[in-house]
Design goal:
By secondary structure, the protein is α+β, with helices and mostly antiparallel strands. The chain has two domains: 153 residues, START domain (Alpha-D-Glucose-1,6-Bisphosphate, Chain A, domain 4, 2-Layer Sandwich); 120 residues, no CATH class. Helix content is 51%, strand content 22%. It has a seven-stranded antiparallel beta sheet with strand order 1-7-6-5-4-3-2. α5 crosses α6, α5 packs across α7 and α7 runs antiparallel to α8. The longest helix has 32 residues. It is elongated and about 85 Å long. Pfam families: DoxX_3 (PF13781). This is DoxX-like family protein. Keywords: Membrane, Transmembrane, Transmembrane helix.
């Protein structure tokens, strides 16, 4: 099945000159665009119209992809609408992108500018590369949309991209941490080992026999593993944080009532749950003004 070009569009409440500046100056562009770590323009010869540049992207510590690009010039209509064409690529085999083309378009209207991009690229490694691109293309499309929202917030509110990205990645680190905690707590002490303390606390808090409690612990563990999976669903994360702010104090009190000695043990239930409770509050606070790829339109609206 042929792939679709990547399309991202967003409305920015500022004039076209401001949006043009933030997107065309490399020292500004590299700050908001998560796809690039650095962008360097090459010096143009006298009379040359094509602006060439080099870029780099840090994939992970010690691994970096570098490439080349050409800004093919700008077309401006009488309405003030601007379009900037782009040709880019890299020779590094670590990059799934071999070469691509696209454009940025700036459409002014009263009080705002519609900023959009559409681009496509060729992959390397034949069929294997096309198969991998089914995973990579949605990821880079998401990264483009997230970057556009960061740009919008920078222009409209003045909050620098570095601050936005730190808040974004801290928030999702907290969410992945909670996913790990609930998965581990459900899988290891409940499903795999059925730790005696888990069974004992359940018998203390209910009228279940030891055998019934042992079976119930497994089901509780399965429920916790499902709860861990819910942390990977962005739409649920804010509600899960609110839920944890309520339930962690209740879980702590229940554990101390069922097994008082756990309150004085090393790395005990009180210190653990209070830590997770505070992290839940921090995560909830971070949800305010969190940049999101959802702020962008990913399909072109057809004219009526």
């Amino acid at each position: 099945m042929p792939h679709k070009p990547i399309y991202v569009e967003i409305d920015i409440h500022d004039n076209i000159d401001a949006v043009w500046t933030y997107t065309q100056q490399p020292d500004l562009h590299e700050q908001w665009d998560v796809r690039f770590s650095s962008i360097t323009y090459n010096e143009k010869s006298l009379g040359e119209t094509v602006q060439t540049f080099t870029y780099s992207t840090k994939v992970m510590p010690g691994i970096e992809v570098s490439g080349w690009g050409e800004s093919k010039g700008t077309h401006e209509k009488e309405s003030g609408e601007k379009t900037s064409a782009l040709h880019f690529g890299t020779d590094q085999l670590i990059s799934p992108i071999a070469e691509g083309k696209g454009y940025w378009q700036y459409i002014p209207s009263e009080g705002r500018t519609t900023f959009l991009t559409q681009y496509d690229y060729d992959v390397r490694f034949g069929g294997a590369g096309k198969l991998f691109d089914r995973l990579f293309r949605p990821l880079i499309g998401w990264g483009t949309a997230l970057s556009f929202d960061v740009l919008k917030r920078w222009i409209e509110s003045g909050e620098r991209p570095g601050t936005q990205y730190r808040r974004f990645f801290v928030f999702y680190t907290i969410c992945f941490l909670f996913a790990f905690v609930w998965l581990y707590q459900g899988l290891v002490p409940k499903v795999l080992t059925q730790h005696p303390l888990e069974v004992s606390m359940l018998t203390q808090l209910s009228s279940l026999s030891e055998g019934q409690a042992s079976t119930a612990v497994i089901w509780v563990g399965i429920a916790e593993m499902i709860f861990a999976g819910c942390w990977l669903i962005p739409k649920l994360q804010k509600y899960l944080l609110k839920l944890q702010v309520i339930i962690f104090p209740l879980l702590t009190i229940s554990a101390v009532i069922a097994a008082p000695f756990t309150a004085t043990a090393p790395f005990n239930v009180i210190t653990l749950n209070v830590t997770l409770w505070v992290l839940s509050i921090i995560g909830l606070l971070l949800t305010k003004e969190l940049p999101s790829a959802k702020s962008c339109r990913r399909k072109r609206v057809k004219a009526a």
